[in-house]
Design brief:
The chain has six helices and 14 strands. It is α/β, with parallel strands linked by helices and 251 residues long. It has a five-stranded parallel sheet with strand order 4-3-7-8-9, sandwiched between helices. Strands 2-1-10 form a three-stranded antiparallel sheet, with no helix packed on it.
């Protein structure tokens, strides 16, 4: 999804551990125009599916799910992380491990809002280890509802969540930013921890990537291609090489 890719490239920030910060537009400050485009795209991808409910998890998935639900004209249910006083009656509950926060927590949905006959589309902002999606899937199974599919805004390919979820038979899983594209935006796993803002693009096999100096070329580069710096511009020389020592790519 080009508009989302461009926005990540412009405003995304990568922190140590390959944590991609998109809080300028996705999961803290929210760009509603971008959300509308995301909603349209998920509607296109799940066109023809019978969906009567959207399920997400608090908190960052809620905003996206609400805009997506507007295009499907269905209600949103979000799994809460704590049982508050306003949840009366019986609930479905399971445990979820958070990769970002390094914690394990309970998620809860009232049995009043999820049950047999519901055809559910799961919406979330990230798919990393897949633990949140695992938890939401468990709630759906426990309720007797049917999982129609999952819509993910950004899927991280360097973690095994997407593959593991698909191997379990949870399909379709639709990611607006797929792992092969995201790998060109993120630093190589071998980089030292640091704070790396994403930078303007350089052509690479018809895709774009942020380039940076790490004493060699990122491992994700196809055919281990390297760059030459000429007249202040970055040019791609398409022949294999381990690295080009001594060339400092400007940040």
């Amino acid at each position: 999804m080009q508009i989302l890719y461009d926005r990540i490239r412009k405003d995304g920030i990568v922190r140590a551990g390959n944590v991609l910060k998109v809080d300028r537009f996705l999961n803290h400050q929210m760009d509603i125009h971008l959300f509308q485009e995301i909603g349209k795209e998920f509607k296109r991808r799940f066109e023809g599916e019978e969906i009567n409910k959207i399920l997400t998890i608090e908190a960052s998935g809620i905003g996206i799910a609400c805009i997506v639900a507007e295009y499907f004209d269905v209600p949103v249910v979000f799994a809460k992380k704590t049982k508050t006083k306003n949840i009366a009656g019986e609930v479905y509950t399971t445990k979820v491990e958070s990769f970002t926060h390094g914690t394990v927590y309970d998620i809860i949905v009232s049995k009043e809002f999820l049950g047999k006959g519901d055809k559910v589309l799961v919406i979330d902002d990230f798919l990393a280890k897949g633990k949140a999606l695992d938890g939401l899937t468990t709630l759906i199974q426990d309720s007797g509802a049917e999982l129609v599919g999952a819509g993910i805004v950004i899927e991280k390919g360097f973690q095994d969540g997407g593959k593991r979820i698909r191997d379990k038979g949870i399909r379709p899983v639709q990611s607006l930013i797929s792992p092969d594209v995201l790998s060109l935006l993120l630093p190589a796993p071998s980089e030292k921890p640091g704070y790396f803002p994403l930078r303007p693009p350089c052509p690479l096999n018809k895709l774009h990537t942020r380039l940076h100096w790490n004493g060699g070329m990122p491992e994700s580069f196809p055919q281990r291609q390297y760059l030459l710096l000429k007249y202040g511009q970055m040019h791609l020389q398409a022949r294999p090489a381990p690295f080009l020592a001594g060339i400092l790519l400007p940040l």
